[in-house]
């Protein structure tokens, strides 16, 4: 009978450390907070047990030694979400400049084990898209010392963040609708509110209404789920509401596309009968009928800035470990370095693109 192969888990148990620590030590991963005593204990345990690493896994680790991972929640719509495509486009430009690889991991909503994917792919750092409020996976990455950047605002600054002010931007575009005379303004969120960006945009919607002395009405709020289809269904429901709202704020442009189609199918003219505004300014927003008024986000800039910040963080860890700069030399050129070890927050600007989907009823001053 063929003897059982000694596994990395066997080494971890023999050394009294985690499987993750064994992976970091045996793959000589740079920038990890592992003491020299722990490193020696792992290597001694591997030697005593006669551990032989899987050669395919070792080759993969070598290939990925200059790679960063992109973890994207809501895998069903990753490749149809234009905003994410634009973010990845910006990332691709940055990784090409710095000669590193991009490893994309679409995640299901219920997946939380980020460290498992870090170990399997051997990436040196992670960029997170569509994080949830108090996402346990973020705390896990921070606890294991894995460099990470979130392209979403998070209350707890456990990792670096590159984002737009979703709350302030949503408030700004909804205020425009109110300034143009609308009072019954509905909202369709682009995702469940446990997602950070969705929550912040909803809060901005409520902030704008409050400035005009309007209480948010639950009957005027619908909840989308990342897709045009969810926007279509939510808008179809709003169009049969009595009284029908005069304007709708869609939480992103994909939701707005569905809302525009639902309006057309119901014989409701945009903007004559109802106004619609979106959020993102995707490529298609200027080519809808009518062209979509929307909040423009620097999607490619978010991706590029996130990569540059992550590579600076990885390099700082390598220097701290005495391992040299390694792959990604020159990362983040012109963007400044990582100062100290505290997580950084970088906020990029937004602006409204006014087109034809929202009409002015009359000028209206704030209600307070």
Walk across the major sheet and give the strand order. Answer: 2-1-3-4-5-11
Biggest sheet character:
6 strands, parallel
- Return Rg in Å: 24 Å
Helix count from the secondary structure assignment:
12
Strand percentage: 5-15%
Tell me the number of strands.
12
Structural class: alpha/beta
Descriptors for this entry?
368 residues; alpha/beta
Task: Write up what this structure looks like.
The protein has 368 residues and is an alpha/beta fold. 40% of the residues lie in helices and 15% in strands. The chain has helices spanning 8-15, 19-26, 36-49, 55-63, 82-98, 114-121, 136-143, 166-179, 196-211, 228-239, 253-265, 299-320; strands spanning 67-73, 101-107, 126-129, 148-150, 160-164, 185-189, 221-223, 247-250, 275-280, 293-296, 345-348, 351-353. The strands form two sheets. The protein has a six-stranded parallel beta sheet, sandwiched between helices. It has a six-stranded mixed beta sheet with strand order 7-6-8-9-10-12, sandwiched between helices. The longest helix is centred in the last third of the chain and has 22 residues, at 299-320. The N and C termini lie far apart (82 Å).
Secondary-structure map with pairings?
Blueprint: H1 8-15, H2 19-26, H3 36-49, H4 55-63, E1 67-73, H5 82-98, E2 101-107, H6 114-121, E3 126-129, H7 136-143, E4 148-150, E5 160-164, H8 166-179, E6 185-189, H9 196-211, E7 221-223, H10 228-239, E8 247-250, H11 253-265, E9 275-280, E10 293-296, H12 299-320, E11 345-348, E12 351-353
Parallel strand pairs: 1-2, 1-3, 3-4, 4-5, 5-11, 6-7, 6-8, 8-9, 9-10
Antiparallel strand pairs: 10-12
């Amino acid at each position: 009978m063929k003897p059982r192969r000694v596994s990395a888990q066997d080494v971890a148990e023999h050394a009294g450390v985690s499987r993750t620590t064994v992976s970091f030590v045996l793959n000589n991963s740079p920038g990890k907070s592992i003491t020299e005593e722990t490193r020696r204990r792992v290597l001694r345990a591997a030697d005593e047990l006669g551990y032989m690493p899987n050669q395919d896994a070792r080759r993969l680790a070598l290939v990925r030694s200059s790679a960063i991972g992109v973890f994207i929640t809501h895998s069903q719509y990753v490749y149809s979400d234009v905003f994410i495509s634009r973010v990845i486009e910006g990332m691709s430009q940055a990784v090409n400049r710095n000669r590193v690889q991009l490893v994309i991991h679409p995640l299901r909503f219920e997946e939380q084990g980020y460290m498992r994917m870090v170990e399997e792919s051997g990436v040196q750092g992670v960029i997170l898209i569509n994080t949830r409020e108090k996402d346990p996976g973020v705390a896990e990455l921070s606890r294991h010392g894995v460099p990470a950047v979130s392209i979403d605002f998070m209350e707890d600054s456990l990792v670096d963040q590159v984002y737009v002010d979703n709350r302030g931007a949503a408030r700004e575009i909804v205020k425009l609708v109110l300034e143009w005379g609308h009072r019954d303004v509905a909202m369709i969120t682009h995702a469940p509110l446990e997602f950070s960006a969705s929550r912040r945009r909803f809060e901005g919607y409520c902030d704008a209404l409050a400035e005009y002395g309007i209480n948010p009405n639950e009957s005027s709020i619908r909840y989308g789920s990342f897709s045009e289809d969810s926007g279509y269904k939510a808008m179809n429901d709003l169009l049969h509401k009595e009284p029908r709202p005069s304007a709708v704020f869609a939480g992103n442009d994909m939701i707005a596309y569905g809302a525009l189609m639902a309006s057309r199918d119901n014989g409701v003219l945009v903007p004559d009968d109802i106004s619609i505004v979106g959020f993102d300014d995707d490529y298609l927003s200027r080519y809808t009928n009518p062209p979509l008024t929307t909040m423009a986000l620097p999607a490619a800039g978010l991706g590029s800035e996130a990569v540059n910040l992550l590579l600076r963080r990885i390099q700082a860890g390598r220097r701290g470990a005495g391992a040299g700069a390694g792959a990604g030399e020159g990362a983040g050129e012109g963007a400044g370095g990582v100062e100290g070890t505290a997580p950084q927050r970088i906020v990029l600007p937004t602006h409204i693109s006014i087109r034809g989907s929202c009409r002015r009823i009359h000028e209206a001053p704030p209600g307070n």
